[in-house]
Specification:
The complex is a heterodimer of chains A (125) and B (108). Chain A has strands at 3-7, 10-12, 18-25, 32-39, 45-51, 58-60, 68-73, 78-83, 92-101, 114-115, 119-123. Chain A is mainly β and 125 residues long. In chain A, a hairpin with a 6-residue loop joins strand 5 (45-51) and strand 6 (58-60). Classes of the chains: A mainly beta (125), B mainly beta (108). Chains A and B meet through strand 5 of A and strand 4, strand 5 and strand 10 of B.
Chain lengths: 125, 108
């Protein structure tokens, strides 16, 4: 079964740091693009970050650029999001999501076809 | 950045009805448009990609159309599972990737 499981969420004070993890199983992780998407309480979806299958192409939303770092360990089938200088507005459920395989003709559509259940980050003093 | 505007923001319908949700891009995005359904408390689910292609395993009552700036998601014969929030997502000239604000579909 294809599965993504996030972990690492919690309560952090403003200015603090946290690292989220996403464990992948049931597919060849190293072949797939990956994303982080977040959803603030009662709000819509916001794309946070993207990494290509090999990690050579990485993008960030302007709202997190310079504070968040996406990375992946293909040997461990894991995706990470290092979050620094956290703000109250970063409070959200964070989802990891699978994109297209590197060989897919649809890889430029940046679709997200498998999602984890999400992990909750609360930034508050 | 490309802005995505969905309409309506919410709508009510009954089981068995057919509904259409619209998504408008602030500039031409060709077919770079995906649709998702999110049930309360759950992760989103990909329904349609590349404007009109049905994701594997998604029921055929879901269909997508449009190109350029105007897109629609049509759900025919609504089922209880379909009462959820729907999002469009553009990926033209990425980054950034942007989502519409969502359309909440409620039971009448």
């Amino acid at each position: 079964e294809v599965q993504l499981v996030e972990s690492g969420g919690g309560l952090v004070q403003p200015g603090g740091s946290l690292r989220l993890s996403c464990a992948a199983s049931g597919f060849t992780f190293s072949n797939y693009e990956m994303y982080w998407v977040r959803q603030a309480p009662g709000k819509g979806l916001e794309w946070v970050s993207y990494t290509s299958s090999g990690g050579s192409s990485i993008y960030y939303a302007d709202s997190v650029k310079g504070r968040f770092t996406i990375s992946r360990d293909n040997a461990k089938n894991s995706l990470y999001l290092q979050m620094n200088s956290l703000r109250a507005e970063d409070t959200a459920v964070y989802f990891c999501a699978r994109g297209s395989s590197s060989s897919s003709i649809f890889r430029y559509y940046y679709l997200m076809d498998v999602w984890g259940q999400g992990t909750t980050l609360t930034v508050s003093s | 950045d490309i802005q995505m505007t969905q309409s309506p923001s919410s709508l009510s319908a009954s089981v068995g009805d057919s509904v259409t949700i619209s998504c408008r891009a602030s500039q031409d995005i060709s077919y770079y448009l995906n649709w998702y359904r999110q049930k309360p408390g759950k992760a989103p689910q990909l329904l349609i990609y590349a404007g009109s292609r049905l994701q594997s395993g998604v029921p055929s009552r879901f269909s997508g159309s449009g190109s350029g700036t105007d897109f629609t998601l049509t759900i025919s014969s609504l089922q209880p599972d379909d009462f959820a929030t729907y999002y469009c997502q553009q990926s033209y000239n990425t980054p950034p990737i942007t989502f519409g604000q969502g359309t909440r579909l409620e039971i009448k």
